[in-house]
Each structure stands twice: as structure tokens, then as C-alpha cells.
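Hypothesis: this fold can be encoded by more than one sequence.
Test: take the C-alpha cells below, design a sequence, compare later.
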């Protein structure tokens, strides 16, 4: 497999942004462990943090497929960098610098859920473009599970916007986390030759 030198350059930039994203999540988790009372530990918040970590790690894993792109343009490069930056935005939104106006992560998430779910929706739609960049063979390889996954994630976004009950939000978060783990385990565990 011949690696395009331009892709190696792009991969480094992607790695920096995605590395910062994972660092933001891990640092936030460490702060909760250090001071659980100060930050107001919340099962709802931790479910979405776990979902983001699982999704981010698998996203980084699957961006290896960009090696199959044989013609890079500035627009493609800019798209990939913006896609990675959107992951960082989600991580930064999950762990704001200041919670004084909210009291806890759970309250913060409920009050800022439209932003958070809006970013998750954007990531879901950006993934469609990312998959298209990897070529039509990629669409065929992903099969019927991929459009179903996309529709389910957009449904999660709509429910996340609409649900006002913390209990309903927690059920949505837990179900989405379990689904995401199952989906990636069943569908995309190996990169190997297809």
C-alpha cells in the first residue's frame, strides 16, 4: 500500500486535533475524580462523555481509510480538518471551563443540550461526506447498517433536543452508548483488506 506524502501531512494535523479532543475528555474525567462534589458528577453527563470517547476513538480508527483517497484538494483537506475540529468542539462543550452558572455537569448538559445535540447532529451529517470522500466502494462495504445508523443518530439528536426530563435524557444517553458500542463492535472492528 503506497502512502501519499500529502496524506501523511494531513494525518499529523488530524492527530493533533483528535489528540486534543481525547485529552479534553480525559482531563475532564480526571477533574471529576479529583473533585466530584465541586463539579457535580452526573450519570447523564458521564454517559455522553463515554459515548463521545467511544465515538472519537472509532472515528480516529476509521480515518485510516483516507489513505485510499488518491487526489487531495484543499477543499477535501479543509473538510477533514473541520470535521476533526467539530469533534474537539463537542469535547470542549462537554467540559466547560466554568460551571458556576449551572451548578453541575448534569444541569449544564440539560440547559445546553441543544448545542451539544446540534454538534452531534452535525457530526452525523459530516460523516456522510467523509464516507463519500473515501469512495463508492466504501459505501458498499458499509452496507445497509450505515444508513440505519445515521438515521438512528439523527433520531437521538431530535429526542435529545425535545426531552425535558433528566430521567428520559439518561435513558436516551445510556441506550445510545450501548448501541454505539454494539454497532462499532459488530460492524467495524477490523480495518484489514476488504
Amino acid at each position: 500500500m503506497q502512502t501519499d506524502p500529502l496524506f501523511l501531512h494531513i494525518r499529523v494535523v488530524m492527530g493533533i486535533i483528535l489528540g486534543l479532543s481525547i485529552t479534553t475528555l480525559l482531563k475532564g474525567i480526571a477533574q471529576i475524580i479529583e473533585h466530584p462534589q465541586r463539579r457535580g458528577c452526573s450519570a447523564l453527563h458521564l454517559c455522553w462523555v463515554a459515548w463521545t470517547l467511544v465515538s472519537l476513538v472509532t472515528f480516529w480508527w476509521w480515518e485510516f481509510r483516507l489513505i485510499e483517497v488518491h487526489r487531495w484538494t484543499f477543499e477535501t483537506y479543509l473538510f477533514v480538518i473541520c470535521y476533526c475540529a467539530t469533534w474537539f468542539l463537542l469535547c470542549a462543550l462537554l467540559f466547560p471551563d466554568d460551571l458556576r452558572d449551572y451548578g453541575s455537569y448534569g444541569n449544564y448538559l440539560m440547559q445546553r443540550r441543544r448545542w451539544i445535540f446540534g454538534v452531534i447532529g452535525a457530526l452525523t451529517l459530516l460523516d456522510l461526506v467523509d464516507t463519500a470522500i473515501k469512495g463508492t466502494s466504501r459505501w458498499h462495504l458499509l452496507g445497509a447498517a450505515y444508513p440505519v445508523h445515521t438515521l438512528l443518530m439523527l433520531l437521538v439528536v431530535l429526542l435529545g433536543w425535545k426531552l425535558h426530563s433528566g430521567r428520559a435524557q439518561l435513558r436516551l444517553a445510556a441506550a445510545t452508548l450501548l448501541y454505539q458500542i454494539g454497532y462499532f463492535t459488530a460492524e467495524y472492528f477490523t480495518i484489514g483488506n476488504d
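The CA atoms of residues 80 and 130 lie 7 Å apart. The radius of gyration is 17 Å.
Hypothesis status: open.
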